[in-house]
Design brief:
The chain has 165 residues and is α+β, with helices and mostly antiparallel strands. The protein contains 4 helices and 8 strands. It comes from Chloropicon laureae.
Length: 165
């Protein structure tokens, strides 16, 4: 028997793959979003979030998971769990008309801007948060000067009494 090759398949001989096939080695991007509604607009925000979830699932390529859930403890909070095939698909999703319309529309009904965090996801495990490098990212100007609102960088202080020198 010769090599069998179907479009999109790997070469095989008699159904046995020729060469190694790496499984689970692809790194995905996970994005979490937290939306905190003003109490009087919680129902409207939940409605907008549900529509956004539906629109993204229907219209975006490269989305492996896109879930919207209400917070178990804060009735005004909604969380998104999004997993994209790679960073290019994540960027495409963030720049999509669905995302830009959602962020614009929900803005007047929320307590503060939508919180967004990115993570690397590989082999079924979530990695560390992705932090941008630069003037406002990890190790940036705000860390060095303590200019961020959390008083980071040069202004961090030790708070444990047992190790306070």
């Amino acid at each position: 028997r010769g090599l069998s090759r179907h479009p999109g398949s790997r070469p095989s001989r008699g159904g046995v793959p020729l060469g190694a096939v790496r499984k689970g080695g692809e790194k995905n991007v996970v994005c979490t979003k937290t939306v905190l509604a003003k109490a009087e607009h919680a129902a409207k925000v939940k409605e907008l979030c549900a529509k956004y979830e539906e629109d993204m699932k229907a219209n975006q390529a490269g989305i492996l998971a896109f879930e919207c859930t209400e917070d178990n403890f804060d009735e005004n909070a909604v969380h998104f769990w999004e997993r994209y095939k790679n960073s290019a698909y994540f960027n495409q999703g963030m720049q999509s008309k669905e995302t830009t319309a959602f962020l614009k529309e929900v803005a007047e009904y929320v307590e503060k801007p939508v919180g967004i965090a990115l993570f690397e996801y590989a082999n079924g495990q979530i990695g560390n948060a992705c932090v941008e490098i630069g003037p406002k990212g990890e190790g940036g100007l705000d860390d060095a000067t303590g200019a961020n609102k959390y008083g980071g960088g040069a202004r961090y202080e030790q708070t444990s009494n047992t190790v306070q020198l």
